[in-house]
Amino acid sequence: MTVSVHEIGKMPNGDLAQQIVLENKNGHQIGVTTWGATWQFFKTNDGHDLMVGLHTTDKLWEQLYSVGDAIGRVGNRITGATFTLEGKQYHLKDNELGNALHGGRDSFSNRTWDFTIDQENNAVTFTTTMTEAIDNFPGTMPTSITYTLTDNDEVILDFAAESDQTTLYNPTSHGYFNPAGIDTDARDLNLQINSQRRLELRDEDTTPTGNFFENAHTAYDFLKPTRIGDNLAQLEGPYDVKFDEAFEINQVAGQPAAVVSDPKSGRNIEVYSDRNAIIFFIANPEVAYHEGDREWFDAHPYNAIALEAQTLSDAINHEGFGDIVLPANKKQTYRTTYKFNNLA
């Protein structure tokens, strides 16, 4: 097991972006960076990259499609960028159609994190402190994210935070995966999600209504391994229609919340989580630079999927979605594990 540090370059704000590479005994590697505690790649020992990532300072700065981002304080959308906590209403910095997406304008993902290396455990821990002056959430909240690459080819993400005031905390990771390799069509992957229902989302801004839909016998039914493209073809919408859904997870000890697999190579990625939801999103993030260009999209189809483990979206504004309140002076931890299988 080895850990190495490399310079990526200067960010537009003058901060130095550094990359930390963890390698396990099998020769597989992950790369993460101090800018946003962003996960950049998972490379196999035979040269396959199984994640779409951002590798230059300009792309990291733009953050289009949240590629590889560490997300927080709160993942996904808070409707109206507003919530009430302990009788006080808070207004966040909206960044999408009047809502706060992935923590709002100033969040985990657009700042430089400090880091410490744990050579013995093949891990790196990123730390930063969020304040109300930064993101409009209450409280000063030191927080950390630890990436560990095990010799069993697991990437373990440990999230932790503690605040001096009661606040919200619902972090996640926005990595984009493709076990077939990032130059292949993600529609040919098989996906299984241990879920029987999903949130009903408003068409105009993808915020929850408070209701659920049943998945069975719909395009959103992934309870058994299913070719993504077959279900995607059932959706109505533009040529680049996407899944962007919050699936409620049936939590069963020892069983993955989701599995994405490549039937050709046999490689798969299992997602284990202590959270009650997974956001499934499919895209080619580069489409952000080619909006409305059908010819480009046809030549560069969906190449990865995100499987974001978190508490159900907008939980603070919907009873029964889960508890994302972090009481003052109480430490909260979460763990998500991505297990990469059949790599050799």
TrEMBL record:
Keyword Isomerase: yes
Coiled coil: none
InterPro entries xref list: Aldose_1/G6P_1-epimerase, Gal_mutarotase_sf_dom, Galactose_mutarotase-like, GH-type_carb-bd
GO MF term (any one): isomerase activity
The enzyme's E.C. designation: 5.1.3.-
Annotated CDD domains: galactose_mutarotase_like (cd09019)
Keywords attached to this entry: Carbohydrate metabolism, Isomerase
UniProt entry tagged with the keyword Chloroplast: no
SUPFAM superfamilies to which the protein is assigned, alphabetical: Galactose mutarotase-like
Similarity comment: Belongs to the aldose epimerase family.
Annotated protein name in UniProt: Aldose epimerase family protein
